[in-house]
Amino acid sequence: MRVRLKGLHWSTFRSADGRKVTCYYAWRGGPRLRGEPGTPEFIADFNEAVARKVALILARVLSWGLNRGMVPVNPCEKGGRLYRGSRADKIWTEAEEALFRAKAPYHLHLPLTLALWTGQRQGDLLRLLWSAYDGKYIRLRQSKTGARVEIPVGAPLKTALDTAAKRKKSSAVILLNSFGKPWTADGFRSSWGKACVAAGIVDRTFHDLRGTAVTRLAIAGCTEAEIATLTGHSLRDVHAILDSNYLRRDPSLAASAIRKLEKRTDSSQ
């Protein structure tokens, strides 16, 4: 039986090795769908994306009504974030990062570095202006939460930004596409997806870099409060990411734990 999925969008391109690749999205500009059309995985992803979209619209309607006294309470407000179990182990490894840098176009390297060293969302990074960077800090207000964050710029990110600044010409926006123009959300998502396919990186999204940044900060020994201050997450969200999604499945933590135990054992002998 054929099922017609309303609003389904797709794009076709050729990978670096000449293969014809088709990527499917729940709608134009929507999330990318896993699997092949007609498979249970594909349909489940589509249904989940639509459900999230409907829930978001409902939350906005209720918020509008609450602000005007038309409803007594908005049950969608402050409900906490639900981190999907299906993305629990979807962090970028250092090997995947290196592979992406080796295969992806150069103009996608800076978005990768910014995401890993700031932990910010795609939308906020695509809108980031040069005026937000003073050589030592990046200061921005997150569009989704309204939180103001002040991010110390680590050495690798500073090198990348300072190099890009020398070529920025007249653009006020930091991240630019191959034509030297600011990205659209759809354009960036499409280019990023194509670069991942060309590099052979499977089931990794740009959004996963936000959780990867949180994970790497924790592995480096940062406290949850330190991480939240840097990324703009709430303490509750940082804890949820570390406890339920990422660290529990990161084998490097186990290795780190053994190294600490060995060091403690050697010092006591």
Q: In words, what does this structure look like?
A:
The protein is mainly alpha-helical and 269 residues long. The protein has two domains: 71 residues, no CATH class; 172 residues, Orthogonal Bundle (hpI Integrase, Chain A), CATH 1.10.443. The chain is built from ten helices and four strands. It has a two-stranded antiparallel sheet. Strands 3-4 form a two-stranded antiparallel sheet. A hairpin with a 6-residue loop joins strand 3 and strand 4. Helix 2 crosses helix 6, helix 3 packs antiparallel against helix 5 and helix 8 crosses helix 9. The longest helix has 28 residues. The chain is globular, with a radius of gyration of 21 Å. The protein starts with 8 loop residues before the first strand and ends with a helix.
